Amino acid sequence: MVKVSLTIEGDAEEVIAAIRKLAGGDAEPATTVTETVDDDVPEGTPESTTASNASSPATPPVPEGRWTIDHVRTFWRYLAPNAQQVYHQVAHSSGYVMSRQSLLDAMGLTERQLSGRMSSVGHSVRRIRNVHNVSLPHPMTFDQSSDDYKMLPDVADAIVRLNLAPSISEA
Fold it and tell me: Is the pTM for the entire model greater than 0.90?
């Protein structure tokens, strides 16, 4: 049986970049290896060892990004068919904004059903951020003060231009 213990320390961006590198199977050797020391070790015990390769470049931070056609196409595949229907409806609305009541009426849903349809969105956003290694804003937000769903113009435009239609769902 193989057991691996790993400690990654650093700024949030460095930690995220290191984890993404590991998950991507990067073949480059690690630049820093650190053994951690338990707090229960008595004083006078030798310190942990640290090996460092100072000549290796730091991993660049995850860039802030805007939604591209490629991002939207991939994101669409990750969305559940029911969520695709909601996104399709809002993308084709005037100004990419739709009141909650208009959306419920157009789709024949209750608020609870709409919430259920949107449950795959957060997971899909995380997946697209990881796949493209970019920090993207949520493609659609709900404004409580105006009771509206607002889609980013880049996302809505891509859905319309790519003629993305909801997949057929069993429900």
Answer: no
